[in-house]
Amino acid sequence: MANWISNFTSETDLSAKHIRPLENAEDLDPLMHRIGDAKYVLLGEASHGTHEYYTWRAEISKRLIEEKGFSFVAVEGDWPDCYKINRWVKDLPDSGSSIEEVLKTFKRWPTWMWANWEVAAFAEWMKSYNSNLDPAEKVGFYGLDVYSLWESMEIIVNYLEKEDPETATLARRVAECFEPYRKNDSYATAYRGMNQRCRNEVVQLLTEVRQNIKKYNDEREADLNAELNTLVMKNAEKYYEAMASFDSSSWNVRDSHMVETLNHLMNYHDDHAKVIIWEHNTHIGDARATDMAAHGMHNVGQLVRQQHQDDGVVLVGFGSYQGSVMAGEFWGGKMKKMELPKAIEGSVERLLHQHHSKNQLLIFDDDSPLKEIFQERLGHRAVGVVYDPHHERGNYVPSRLSDRYDAFLYIDKTKALHPLHLKPDGHLVPETYPFGI
């Protein structure tokens, strides 16, 4: 560690050349150059409740869409909820009069992840940008996650009853299989006992929806919506069963599902499609560069690199030294604004703060000295939706930063993001009101 600190802090010329200041969108030019013609750009976050991570991801995404023709944004969110945003930014019929109207329908805890002012502002920008494009060229917004079992089931049953009554009969049978477990639905609980007939019928339903997909053309992307809601049903059953084993298998099922969904989206779009992915660092940073690999875990960043490296993959991590964050004290608990303590000694974030207490952009090109310098395994903070600032040392993932990411945005001081909440008088205020933000 001492050698690492010496190499990093003594070479001021090296630092000035390879670690750039990060103050505005123009400072992202080196990152745009690093991305080049890559088709897969994965943008992380060190927490699900930090304003700056959302706004910097939005700035990067705007430039990728405007300058490099990226096709859609795919996020760590439920397919049905995010598809509502997709319909709104593409101005499809009955998609909502405002983005606030769309986001207030997000009910699943933690609601603040997507129902917030930062996402609303980016969605407004997307809709404005799309307004000048032909329908087939409009930029989309999709959810990759596996948690929306019940919502996806209800959507597919209702949709098939209108469009494909024969397949709807099978969908209703599948729904009946899942119904006994509905009361246990949450991130933190799991169920066992799904019989083999139910599993077979979930797979059969997905097969039949795919075979009949060309029938589902009453609205642009209706076929995509039907297929991916069915895919959620198939993989959600595997995910919840895996959770009951209390090992790494549920994590792997979830991240494999997100990559499977991503691949479906890329195949649905044309051969020139490019995607921007928004997820937590623990999903987009290559797991092989962390202690996750020793526990038998893989993640989205690793799988996308392995499957699509020839098409260009760029992984961008985020981190910060101190500030505030939105989180809950326990699963399902009331969200609150919490202090984000100063990063611990020996962490990536502490060392970057000691180097320069300003926002910084690091690019890990193969010929950059930073590539070798950041091979040292260092703690890298990861804050979840459940967070206890008083037990900070357990929130650090040992990481070889320059293998985990291709670039890193360091924000010295952050603040909590701004959740939405609709009061009875119709005025939007932060959800923590009256306690303030």
UniProtKB/TrEMBL annotation:
<dbReference type="InterPro" id="IPR014622">
    <property type="entry name" value="UCP036794_erythomycin"/>
</dbReference>
<dbReference type="InterPro" id="IPR052036">
    <property type="entry name" value="Hydrolase/PRTase-associated"/>
</dbReference>
<dbReference type="InterPro" id="IPR007815">
    <property type="entry name" value="Emycin_Estase"/>
</dbReference>
<keyword id="KW-0175">Coiled coil</keyword>
<protein>
    <submittedName>
        <fullName>Erythromycin esterase homolog</fullName>
    </submittedName>
</protein>
<dbReference type="Pfam" id="PF05139">
    <property type="entry name" value="Erythro_esteras"/>
</dbReference>
<dbReference type="GO" id="GO:0046677">
    <property type="term" value="P:response to antibiotic"/>
</dbReference>
<feature type="coiled-coil region">
    <location>
        <begin position="199"/>
        <end position="226"/>
    </location>
</feature>
